[in-house]
Design brief:
The protein is an all-beta fold. Helix content is about 0%, strand content about 55%.
């Protein structure tokens, strides 16, 4: 199915050079001069090799038709990440690097979508947003709540994000899993 390259998401499986590739990183970049593009890191489903590619947002890519199943993440051990099919309750293990930079956002019991080609699991799609707790950040500065500047923070999962100045340690925030960015304060 043809899709605009600007809509590429982590976890998609696309056809590139006549082979299936799983998207492990996708970043939309709009330079000051020139057209916007997607910087994509892909992993070959067949060989396991990685490559980086740049697609103009108006280009089209072939998103492969894969069987998607609702699954639940159970645990991680030395062999990898263990998931359970939510319908059949079958358990299977995938390598931990299948998630790329999104790995820290995976939590026990999380509902995910796993894509299969010929009954072989090939990619994991996390929810677009997750709630995390700020473990460490600079203290709140009074009167700086309307400032447009951001400050660094470390989340409970070890990920570093930039947050508004009114966010303090212990606050729960919503984080986008695709780019690891602050979205809003959790309600």
């Amino acid at each position: 199915m043809k899709q605009l390259a600007g809509s590429i998401r982590i976890g998609w499986v696309i056809e590139y050079k006549n082979k299936p590739w799983t998207i492990t990183k996708a970043q939309h970049i709009k330079p000051g001069k020139g057209g916007a593009f997607m910087q994509v890191e892909m992993k070959s489903v067949e060989e396991g090799t990685k490559t980086n590619e740049r697609f103009r947002t108006e280009d089209t890519v072939e998103k492969l038709m894969v069987e998607e199943k609702d699954c639940q993440f159970l645990f991680e051990d030395g062999t990898g990440l263990t998931f359970m099919d939510s319908e059949t309750f079958d358990q299977f293990t995938l390598p931990a690097d299948i998630l790329g930079d999104s790995r820290p956002f995976m939590t026990d019991g999380m509902a995910v979508i796993i894509s299969f080609i010929d009954n072989k699991p090939i990619s994991v799609e996390l929810p677009l947003q997750v709630v995390c707790t700020v473990a460490e950040t600079e203290p709140v500065v009074k009167g700086q709540t309307a400032a447009s500047s951001y400050k660094p923070a470390i989340l409970d999962n070890g990920v570093r994000v930039m947050v508004p100045p009114f966010i303090g340690a212990g606050d729960k925030i919503v984080v986008g899993t695709a780019e690891g960015n602050y979205v809003e304060r959790a309600k």
